[in-house]
Amino acid sequence: MSEKACKQCNRIVEDATECPVCKNNDLSSTWSGTVVIYNPEDSEIAEKLGVKTPGEYAIRVK
Ligand SMILES: [Zn+2]
């Protein structure tokens, strides 16, 4: 699996070594569950995850 998740903001990152959202390079290949967030301001899960940028996010990152 080439998809990894950012440990800081949970963003799913594909074929990259750096998170496009927070520029963190601490990515984890151990994560579970994904959610696509379209409207961070209007999403309960986005608020829970602290997401402010639309995109695909992991529910849990280890
Ligand atoms: Zn990030």
From TrEMBL:
GO cellular component: DNA-directed RNA polymerase complex
Originating organism: Candidatus Nanohalococcus occultus
Name of this chain's protein: Transcription elongation factor Spt4
Binding of Zn(2+), residues: C6, C9, C19, C22
Family: Belongs to the archaeal Spt4 family.
SMART domains attached to this UniProt entry: Spt4
GO molecular function, one term: DNA-directed RNA polymerase activity
Domain of life: Archaea
Role, per record: Stimulates transcription elongation.
Gene field: rpoE2
Gene3D superfamilies according to UniProt: 2.20.28.90
InterPro entries for the chain: RPABC4/Spt4, Spt4/RpoE2_Znf, Spt4_arch, Spt4_dom_sf
Annotated TM spans: none
Keywords carried by this UniProt record: DNA-directed RNA polymerase, Metal-binding, Nucleotidyltransferase, Transcription, Transcription regulation, Transferase, Zinc
Quaternary structure and interacting proteins, as annotated: Heterodimer composed of Spt4 and Spt5.
Pfam (any one): Spt4
Domain Spt4/RpoE2 zinc finger: 3-62
